[in-house]
User: Fold this.
Amino acid sequence: MKPRDPHRSLKSSLCFSAIIAILLSSFALLYSTTLLLPPSPSSSSPLSNAACDLFSGQWIIFPRPALYDASCPFHRNAWNCYRNDRDGMASINAFSWLPNGCGGSPLPPIDPAAFLSSMRGRRIGFVGDSLNENFLVAFLCALHSADPGARKWKRKGAWRGGYFPTFDVTVAYHRAVLLARYRWQPVENSSASFHEDGLKGIYRVDVDVPADDWVNVTNFYDVLVFNTGHWWGSDKFPKETPLVFFKDGKPIVPALGIVDGLKVVLKSMISYIEKEVPKRTLKYWRSQSPRHFHGGEWDHNGSCLFTKPLSAGELDSWFDPGNKGVNKEAREVNFLIKEAIDGRDIQLLNLTHMSEFRADAHPAIWLGKKDAVAIWGQDCMHWCLPGVPDTWVDILATKIIHDFGAG
Assistant:
């Protein structure tokens, strides 16, 4: 037998080592490249299950992880329930949403770092009233936990917002409570036809003109979340200072009531969105956030001092318009919204049902100012933060990641 060639053995060993090194380098490159790719639907996403319905389900005792506290720099004072020493905050955040058909587990909370990484270089905008601002604040505070260097952002006409420099992500809110442009006109500056006894003036609504706050940002955002509806009531616009609707610069004749005015504005604004917002932009319309006034309206001793969620059997008695209760408006407006966006390139973010249960989760009397309740009544419309809007954030983040991956 010939003796083994030591040089040949060395060459074989070196060759084998080189192959292993190449394989390891290739794996490392593939792994690092995969981390930089945009997310796509996967088995870990609830929406990978076709039967999953994020918007129906039940609340179960399953405490949420705390992503932020009273120190979040994006808080709005009246909703900062930890700072305002609201009773029962531990109970409010002891519940998690269990959606139907999504694998039998609670909805996974947002992973702020993973979400921001997946959204690198993108912009998310909220347009609407203070309930969308409530939503935005929860979003900003959750994301801030992954980028402490985040700073406030108010350019492009934004009412408020945040910029996350580590990921180059912008999230902002444009206040446009009616979506359409509206402005105050005193009686002396109004048409003679509006000179009625007791009339102080009118709020002119141009149904075919978007509010200045968001008209020029339609190309700026990669995701837009719209809402309106909470201002469309006689409490905001009583008969002495009513809404009067204009089109093409002229009053609509015969004059529209507030509900018919809302229908016309919805149709007009949705047409504008479809025309002016790029097709690539993800567009969502958030359904109504339900109120929980008990025993009267906000200005007639309405209260929401509850310590636990409502049961499923109680919801219709609170919210069914057929019962003519003080909280019926959410379902009434939702009917108009669903009708208006049907067949359009706008997805309904139907957060109403899941929120109807949570009579326990409003700021109520803990508003941070001594005389606030005496002046404004209890706040049974907006939500404590942390609280229910954090679950809205979980749902929106899940939808955004899924929809960008699917698209």
Summary: Residues 362 and 382 are 6 Å apart (CA to CA).
